[in-house]
Structures are given as structure tokens and as C-alpha cells.
Recover the amino acids of this structure.
């Protein structure tokens, strides 16, 4: 199968998606956000082994891709809440299908 990049065309949709979602931890961050908005600390506790730096980078990448919203609350103490955008929520059927496939095939 010929790579579309070899023909001078843009990457196929799957390649584009993997550029955004292919990073380590990205899927589990999104999984947690499907259950509702989360603070940074809540995400970090849920993903026990993720470093704060990696979590911050992944969230920033997802925000830049239009998948995650970052809302800053100017309360005392100030806090930030992450939630999925409409674009992010549209990924839910994809995740559900992957979960079903994993359960069916024991992967």
C-alpha cells in the first residue's frame, strides 16, 4: 500500500488522528474526561503513574487540537477544570467501539 505522503498529499485521516491521539496517556485522559469535567489533580490521581509534566503536555496538545477545554476559575485558591469540547465528545463512539472490541477479543 502506497503512503499518501510519498505522493505529496497530506496524511490520511488515520495518520492525522494518530498525530493527535497517539501519545502515551492520551486515551486514558480522554476516558476520564468522558465522565465529566476534572481538575488537574483529579486526573493525576486517577492516572497514578503519569508525571505532572506529561499530563500538562498532553492536556495542552488536546486543547490545541480543539478536543479539550481549559477553564480557569479565579477563586481563592484559583483552579483549572478540563472538559471535553463538542469535538472531543464526538470521540465517544470510537472509544466505545474500541472498548467493545477489546472485551470481545480479550486484548
Amino acid at each position: 500500500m502506497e503512503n499518501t505522503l510519498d505522493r505529496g498529499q497530506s496524511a490520511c485521516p488515520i495518520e492525522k488522528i494518530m498525530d493527535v491521539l497517539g501519545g502515551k496517556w492520551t486515551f486514558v485522559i480522554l476516558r476520564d474526561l468522558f465522565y465529566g469535567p476534572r481538575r488537574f489533580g483529579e486526573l493525576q490521581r486517577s492516572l497514578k503513574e503519569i508525571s505532572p509534566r506529561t499530563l500538562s503536555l498532553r492536556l495542552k496538545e488536546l486543547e490545541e487540537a480543539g478536543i479539550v477545554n481549559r477553564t480557569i476559575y479565579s477563586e481563592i485558591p484559583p483552579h483549572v477544570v478540563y472538559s471535553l469540547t463538542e469535538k472531543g465528545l464526538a470521540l465517544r463512539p470510537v472509544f466505545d467501539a474500541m472498548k467493545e472490541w477489546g472485551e470481545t477479543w480479550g486484548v
The beta strands are 38-39, 68-73, 79-84. The first strand starts at residue 38 and ends at 39.
